[in-house]
Amino acid sequence: MSKYNALWEYVQKSGKESFHLTFEEIQEVAGIPIDHSFLKYKKELAEYGWQVGKISMKEQTVSFHKVD
Questions:
Q1: Residue 7 in 3-state DSSP?
Q2: How far apart are CA 41 and CA 36, in angstroms?
Q3: Which domain of life is it from (predicted)?
Q4: Residues 44, 1: contact at Cβ < 8 Å?
Q5: 55: helix, coil or strand?
Q6: Domains of the chain, residue spans
Q7: Could you give the CA distance from residue 65 to residue 20 in angstroms, rounded to a whole number?
């Protein structure tokens, strides 16, 4: 079980084609702060039919996109 499973399930159930979450929102959903390991774990999202798009350190946001 991944430490980001709660986040992946949230993204999958969003009902949107794409959207952004702030680092703070991700922490609220996942129950843990986003850290450098997110880059490794983001590959797991493909199993849910989604992918991680742009990660903005300046704006502290992550974009998510549904995969066709």
A1: helix
A2: 10
A3: Bacteria
A4: no
A5: strand
A6: 5-66
A7: 9
Q: Which residues is 1 bridged to in the sheet?
A: none
Phi, psi angle pair for 5, to nearest 5° = -55, -40
pLDDT tens per residue, range 5-33: 999 999 999 999 999 999 999 999 999 99
Q: Which two tokens stand for residue 31?
A: 């129950």
Q: In 3D, which of 62, 59, 16 has the Cα closest to residue 38?
A: 62
Closest of 50, 67, 66, 59 to residue 21, by C-alpha: 59
Beta strands in 7-68 (DSSP E): 18-22, 50-56, 61-66
3: nearest Cα among 24, 25, 26? 26
